[in-house]
Amino acid sequence: MEKVISLNLDKVLSFVGKAEIESKAALAKQYNEVLHKGSGKGSDFLGWLNLPTSITSAHLDDIQATANELRKCEVVVVVGIGGSYLGAKAVIEALSNSFDWLQKDRKNPVIVYAGQNIGEDYIYELLAYLKGKSFGIINISKSGTTTEPALAFRILKKELEDSVGKAVAKTRIVAVTDAARGALHTLAKNEGYKMYVIPDNVGGRFSVLTPVGLLPIAVAGFDIKKLVEGAVYMEKNTTPDVPFEKNLAEQYAVTRNELYKKGKKIEILVNFNPKLHFFAEWWKQLYGESEGKDNKGIYPAAVDFTTDLHSMGQWIQEGERTIFETVISVANAHHKVEVPSDAEDLDGLNFLVGKRVDYVNKMAELGTQLAHVDGGVPNIKVEVPELSEYYLGQLIYFFEKACGISGYILEVNPFDQPGVEAYKKNMFALLNKPGFEKAHEEIQKRL
Ligand SMILES: O=P(O)(O)OC[C@H]1O[C@](O)(CO)[C@@H](O)[C@@H]1O
Asked: In the chain, is it the N or the C terminus that has fewer CB atoms within a 10 Å radius of its CB?
């Protein structure tokens, strides 16, 4: 089997012609070059671009060694939000047993997450679950000042220190943060936590291949070397010197922008494998924060099929025709389950006896594709040979690279996220945070 993901645009061509796509090849290449020359908007944040090929085995060994220490815990809490959370969660969920937390005789710690919400019941229930268990914490925040993870970490740190004492607690806490600034950096230095650095020039949503993603993924028991290998493959195969016909990132970037120009304002990332649910969440942040600005940008949405065919399927088939789909199609399942025969056949499924469940799923996928295309929904297909570290590495870098090119085609800065500050300012004003006294008075008048 050739080790590569592939892109199939056949079911787009009745909406955007091959010639139209090819006519934009030079533009995509130009923007790919702009990325590599660092001459475009947001060029301070291009550290992800050559990241895979610059990761050394010594760095990966160091991460693995830290992971091995944390793996001695029963539970590891990964604290972070947005780009400091979703990449790790995406990969871990894609590779884990679907019932991981119910497994006995575990080889890996249970991974749980905190700091990705401010749900009081969530943190209460997490603390209740952690009671009496040996647990460690990976605290991830690039800025080191994000409220959600800071709040969760404060609570979890106290819980850990109360249960094992400060001296042991500090051996079970690892910080992943900025090289020099931020509250988490200071805290980690003062407390003597093992610390990993998120390079200044790698934004949160592009940071999964830094310790932000690699450490939790290694703790969960997955092969970070293979993940990086996959990304290296894709880095080398999406450079500007790779011709457009072979350059998946350029092709995807062009196609989605051509669809956008034709009024397809919403892109739905589709999977037929529930393990990819959080991969779509990661992708949503990547494209949403990168492109949704200056009053433009494709709205990134996601569905899990066939589950959501029984909820959102109606809308997708016959609702407003402003959508297109990008399907992540996984060629091979890891396990085999065949349809058993049933003497009474009351459910009428005996015609499938001996067929694999994955075969039924594939027919659902094909049937859905044809139905949606007939219903006016263009369909981009990203084919992945199987869910493994290597192919996820390819997929991650493919989407990152395409995102950079796509953002430039859209003429936005794909590497900032100024809009995220608006809710934070209001929240701080409402909470009367020191420094926000005037804003507090102002906002009170609006209530
Ligand atoms: O790692 P940090 O600095 O805590 O930020 C977490 C997330 O918050 C954001 O900055 C938005 O507020 C995202 O861009 C980022 O991924």
From this structure: C
Residue 284 appears among annotated catalytic residues: no
What pLDDT, on the 0 to 100 scale, is given for residue 1? 47
In sequence order, the β-bridge partners of residue 176 are 140, 196
Task: Give the position, in ligand 1's atom list, of the atom nearest the Cα of 83.
Answer: 16
Choice from 116, 117, 146, 421 to test ligand 1 binding pocket (greatest atom count within 8 A of CB): 146
Q: What is the pTM of this model?
A: 0.98
Domain ranges of the chain: 6-41+232-406, 72-220
Residue of 78, 84, 215, 287 best suited for mutating to test ligand 1, as the one with most atoms within 8 Å of CB? 84
Instruction: Give the pLDDT score at 2.
Output: 52
Nearest C-alpha neighbor of 87 from the set 179, 216, 187, 174:
216
Do 215 and 176 meet the contact criterion of CB atoms below 8 Å apart?
Answer: yes
**Do the beta carbons of residue 259 and residue 16 sit within 8 Å?**
yes
Q: What CATH homologous superfamily does 6-41+232-406 map to?
A: Glucose-6-phosphate isomerase like protein; domain 1 (3.40.50.10490)
159 touches 127 (CB < 8 A): yes
Strands 323-332, 266-271: pairing is: parallel
Contact (Cβ atoms closer than 8 angstroms) between residue 202 and residue 45: yes
Q: Phi and psi at residue 415, in whole multiples of 5°?
A: -115, 10
Query: Is 204 close to ligand 1, i.e. is its CB under 6 Å away?
Result: yes
CA distances from 247 to 320, 359, 363, 408 (A): 32, 30, 29, 17
Q: Give residue 147 CA to ligand 1 midpoint distance, Å.
A: 10
CB 21 within 8 A of CB 255: yes
Give the three-state DSSP class for 164. helix
Q: CA 78, CA 60: separation in Å to the nearest integer?
A: 19
CA angle (435 as vertex; 434, 441 as ends), nearest 5: 90
User: Are 267 and 299 in contact, with CB atoms under 8 Å apart?
Assistant: yes
CATH architecture of 72-220: 3-Layer(aba) Sandwich (3.40)
Question: What are the structure tokens assigned to 148, written together?
Answer: 């959600």
What is the mean pLDDT, run by run of 10 residues, along the chain of 447 residues?
Answer: 85 97 98 98 97 98 98 98 98 97 93 98 98 98 93 98 97 94 90 95 97 98 98 98 98 98 98 98 98 98 98 98 98 98 98 98 98 98 98 98 98 97 95 96 95
Has the ipTM of the complex gone over 0.90?
yes
pLDDT at 314: 98
Q: Could you tell me the strand order of the sheet in which 173-178 lies?
A: 110-114, 75-79, 135-141, 173-178, 194-198
